């Protein structure tokens, strides 16, 4: 293998997680350490995870013992999409603390996504209104 070859990356970082029993019991998902080393400085205390169906889930990050976890909000997503041992998620980092995620079942096929409950849609609208109000107040 030639050492003169340039390194090529996809441009958008990805990682995947296979759901284990510990993840289900602890109600949090550890972000891989290598990802945190490379991109952790760009992550805020809260992140958004968006699914192909258009739903967007806000989650708090917890840092403990050199690990970073998707914590508060993770259990709601896991329950809604019926995550179980062996389910797999692929995360694509879009920057600005936003991830796109795709969920696969234990047969390795992407799932059909159930609609998001109405109370969560209201939560998203409230977040958008709050962000807009913050922009307006900063402009003044």
From TrEMBL:
Occurrences of domain TF-B3 (ranges): 14-107
Alphabetized PANTHER family for the sequence: B3 DOMAIN-CONTAINING, B3 DOMAIN-CONTAINING TRANSCRIPTION FACTOR VRN1-LIKE
Any one GO molecular-function label of the UniProt entry: DNA binding
InterPro entries in alphabetical order: B3_DNA-bd, DNA-bd_pseudobarrel_sf, Plant_B3_domain
Domain of life assignment: Eukaryota
Keyword Ribonucleoprotein in annotation: no
Subcellular location(s) of the protein: Nucleus
PROSITE patterns (alphabetical): B3
Coiled-coil stretches noted in the UniProt entry, renumbered to this chain: none
Swiss-Prot/TrEMBL keywords: DNA-binding, Nucleus, Transcription, Transcription regulation
GO cellular component: nucleus
Listed name of the protein: B3 DNA binding domain containing protein
Pfam family, one: B3
């Amino acid at each position: 293998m030639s050492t003169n070859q340039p390194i090529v990356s996809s441009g958008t970082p990805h990682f995947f997680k296979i759901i284990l029993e510990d993840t289900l019991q602890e109600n949090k998902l550890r972000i891989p350490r290598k990802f945190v080393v490379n991109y952790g400085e760009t992550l805020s205390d809260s992140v958004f995870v968006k699914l192909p169906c258009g739903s967007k889930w806000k989650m708090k990050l917890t840092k403990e013992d050199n690990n970073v976890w998707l914590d508060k909000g993770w259990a709601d997503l896991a329950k809604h999409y019926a995550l179980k041992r062996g389910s797999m998620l692929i995360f694509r980092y879009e920057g600005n603390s936003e991830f796109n995620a795709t969920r696969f079942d234990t047969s390795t096929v992407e799932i059909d996504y159930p609609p998001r409950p109405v109370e969560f849609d209201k939560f998203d609208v409230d977040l958008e209104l709050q962000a807009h109000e913050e922009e307006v107040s900063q402009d003044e």
